[in-house]
């Protein structure tokens, strides 16, 4: 059972996860347009991960007897300043998502909603990895600077990222 407040907050965040997926799909196409094929792959994998996050919320809300509802959303950006700028925007977005997950967790604690607290724990941990990945790439990009060879090497490394479906796929 979800309280009306908890249901509304979870449904809103489910839509934010879908927004994240669309944002990274746009970033993938933008990277491709910049000639960064490996980076396009990295963002495509990120898009697939966000769809898993979206589906986890969708499945959880429905499994609690409520109706998950996809709504209207703002169009995500499609223009990004640079290779580095794209990852700086990604980190800023993930920090925002972390704050949303923290707020949801706070609400679940206030409401003594133990099931939702347990559900959200996966996301609390996931956000550490999300931010860490972005910080690592930003660090490398800052070290590389304008060195074209370095940028190509990093792009090639990002091309090796593979989407791994979760062990507990959302039903
Ligand atoms: Fe779903 O973690 Fe990124 O946005």
Describe this structure in words.
- With 171 residues, the protein is mostly helical.
- It has one domain (4-158): Up-down Bundle (Ferritin).
- The protein has five helices and no strands.
- Helix 1 runs antiparallel to helix 2 and helix 1 (4-33) packs antiparallel against helix 3.
- The longest helix has 31 residues, at 114-144.
- The protein starts with a helix and ends in a 13-residue tail after the last helix.
- Hydroxy diiron-OXO moiety binds next to helix 1, helix 2 and helix 3.
The number of distinct helices, counting runs of at least 4 residues, comes to 5
Q: Proportion of β residues?
A: under 5%
Q: What's the overall average pLDDT, rounded?
A: 97
Gross geometry: elongated
Order of helices and strands: HHHHH
Q: From the 3D structure, determine the CATH topology.
A: Ferritin
CATH architecture annotation name: Up-down Bundle
Distance between the termini: 19 Å
CATH class: Mainly Alpha
* Ligands and ions found: hydroxy diiron-OXO moiety
Measured as a percent range, the helix fraction is over 70%
Detail the poorly predicted runs: none
Structural class: mainly alpha
The CATH superfamily is known as Ferritin, core subunit, four-helix bundle
Give the count of structural domains: 1
